[in-house]
Amino acid sequence: MILDRCQGCLIGGAAGDALGYEIEFDRLREIVKRYGKEGITEYELHNGKALVSDDTQMTLFTAEGLLLAEESSFAGYRAGIRRAYMDWIRTQYEHFPLQDAQAAHSKLLRIPELFAWRAPGNTCLSAIEGGCDGSVAEPVNQSKGCGGVMRVAPIGLLSPDKLPEDEADRLGAEAAALTHGHDLGYLPAMVLVHMVRKLVYADMTMHEAAESAIAAMERLYPKAKHLKDLTKLLGTAVKLADDPKITPVKAYKTLGEGWVGDEALAVALFCAVRYEEDFDGAMIASVNHDGDSDSTGAVCGNLLGARLGLNAIPQKYILDLELRSTLMQMGASLAG
């Protein structure tokens, strides 16, 4: 079951990313005009593949940072993730194949498909180019973009015997803070990591995992400036999801468009709670809106995949997914 959920989390995130990437910069009226009243419901294939964005690319590098860490500790994992992000940015500016020792060390730098520009966020690019060494205590900027939360799900897949829960939660925040210094840039990452771990290893429901994550955030970051704002927004997301009279489109008018971390998590959480047993329904709802469709889809897919497992993901989301085998291998390695 753990393997199924770990692989489900990564495949699910990539599936939401790929479905939403096709319409990332489109308004809902344009999406409906192009695909019909339900919006996009199937992959758009390019040379037979459903392409993923920088969200999935960076998620894979987060996973590799954990797997190649020199020691199984908070500091070791943080250093590994930082180094992995420095590897990722090479795929954005250099050409395959690379001819150096680091390329031999990193399995991902040996995958030609990863050397692709997929609308990476300016904050991630500039922060990593500047050294990728921001932290919660010493913010690198005041960005609250969703580039922090959309890439950290693998941290929640680390087995509890490798890193205690509070340290995993803090690692989620610090992994995001490498590039995003605003507390609404890194706190959502902490929440996602906590929820993923609870869904995978504690077999919690989505409601239970959300409540546990919010409580952990309030305990670990009581002095965060925007703590109450994020707590309120996530509570609203759950409340709206539980009200069958509220449509997703109406909910998003309250929750936001997902371009920033708190809104991306809130939209994803709404869909994950509303469609907890329906992966397809969650994916469709999570991407068909005016905002950052690939990131809201990715985070929702991480949550649903962790909750339901790989075997519950419809084959239409798996068969033509770019980097499928790499994602499966990463999930298995983290589960091991």
Structure overview:
This protein is mainly alpha-helical. The chain has 16 helices and no strands. The protein has helices spanning 2-21, 28-35, 54-67, 74-93, 101-105, 122-129, 153-157, 165-177, 183-201, 206-220, 227-241, 248-255, 261-274, 279-287, 293-308, 324-335. Helix 1 crosses helix 9. The relative contact order is 0.20.
Output the keywords.
mainly alpha; 336 residues; globular; ADP-ribosylglycohydrolase fold; 16 helices; 0% strand
* Average pLDDT for all residues: 97
Largest sheet: none
State the CATH superfamily name. ADP-ribosylation/Crystallin J1
Low-confidence stretches: none
Distance between the termini: 12 Å
Number of domains: 1
Report strand %: under 5%
Structural class by SSE content: mainly alpha
Describe the global form.
globular
CATH classification, class level: Mainly Alpha
Compute the gyration radius: what is it?
Answer: 18 Å
- Report the strand count: 0
Number of helices: 16
CATH level-3 fold name:
ADP-ribosylglycohydrolase fold
Summarize this structure briefly.
With 336 residues, this protein is mostly helical. It is built from 16 helices and no strands. The longest helix has 20 residues, at 2-21.
Question: What's the SSE blueprint?
Answer:
Elements: H1 2-21, H2 28-35, H3 54-67, H4 74-93, H5 101-105, H6 122-129, H7 153-157, H8 165-177, H9 183-201, H10 206-220, H11 227-241, H12 248-255, H13 261-274, H14 279-287, H15 293-308, H16 324-335
Helix pairs in contact: 1-3, 1-9, 1-14, 1-15, 1-16, 3-4, 3-16, 4-8, 8-9, 9-10, 9-15, 10-11, 11-13, 12-13, 13-14, 13-15, 14-15
